Amino acid sequence: MLKHKYTDRICIIIAAAACIIAALFLSGDKLGITPVSSVPEYSVRIFDDSYVHHIDIQIDDWDKFLEEAPEEEYTECDVEIDGELFTSIGLRAKGNNSRRLVEEYGLDRYSLKIEFDHFQEGNTYYGLDKMSLDSSFQDNSYLKNYMTYDMMSFMGVPSPLCSYVRVTVNGEDWGLFLAVEEPEEAFARRNFGADYGMLYKPDYRSLEDANNDVALKYTTDNPEEYDNIFRHAKFDCTESDQQRLIQALKVLSEGQGTELESAVNVDEVLRYFTVQVFVVNLDSYLGKTGHNYFLYEEDGVISILPWDYNLAFATYSLGMPDPVNDAGLYVNYPIDTPAAGEIMTNRPLYHNLMKTEEYFARYHEYFNYFMEKYFENGYFEKKVAETTRMIAPYVEKDPTAFCSYEDYLIGVETFTKFCLLRSESVRGQLEGTIPSTIAGQEADTENRIDASEVWLPDMGEIADLRQ
Questions:
Q1: Do residues 275 and 148 make contact, with C-beta atoms less than 8 angstroms apart?
Q2: pLDDT tens per residue across span 216-259
């Protein structure tokens, strides 16, 4: 056999290239490179939720950080995650009412944001650009956010990854928090691929305003009318991005039946609302505030994504001037009209889809699947039990907790009871033995599930902050 004079050289080049490619593949997440159709490395590191992780915040002046926390300005620090040090990281307090109330009650347990690339462009944690550390504000069970994201993921809704972490500051215990993947570039790349679309977090400036854009209502073609959406764009928002989204809202407003599929990812939205309605989150798109969600748009088609559930499970009303503990109302909250009429007609992403018989029937099919596979086969109780066993020792030693360890155990029990009774009610609503509308339940209260054993404040209320 004749040997070509360049064969050896070609083989050496190919071998070298293979080594380089392999090295990039293995360390790509550290460099911010995520292979197409792969699981980012951060998802199997900090967001492996089978154990409690450890994050040590190493900061020069923690007292000064706490003093200035209400200003929500980033401070530079180092962060050690499970023994691995990451330097020059951005850290700030997060939250709206929770941040304000923590300050008002003279406490220091703020939820936090960790932004890996804030001070150094391209800096990531194995491909992750930002995460938050949730403080379990008004959540004595430490379960509301974690379990809701689990429910959303179970139903195939693109959701933030999360895991429990023991947080220390300069080596001193600070408490048990929930690490949550922030929906930004890494999240978009993980869920939608390298050519992901636009991501927004619509929110109001004032509840006194009409906030039609937060409600996803079409008004005009003028982008200025949608400021509450566009000023909260997670990526650079161009004029063409604005036009695509406005056109999608117009179709949502004016379209009929299956025409809506040209502007709405109907299947994803129905799965989202299945969980959203189940958890009775009144501080949400289906509540009076209309916010606490992410909006994703790609090729003129919109989806809604989950966010912020510490006030879910009917605990949003707590802390009001006259708190109402009507567990029977919320356990049996109707799945077909999950808000009063004046709110529903101003929430077209729910209301306009449900006017189409095909989508309404599919929504019920998803609810049936959710009840059968998540609750009625024991999965939910097993998940709660496993999670509680894992985190309980850390809660017991949590030096900044909003509640006592005994209140935590009661919170877990109350959370579990609420969900199991709610699943019974939903099953009855699907089968027609319990009315599935507000009007129907007002006319017939006899067949509702009895929830008298549930005291909603046990899941967490503002009064718990008085320590």
A1: yes
A2: 999 999 999 999 999 999 999 999 999 999 999 999 999 888 89
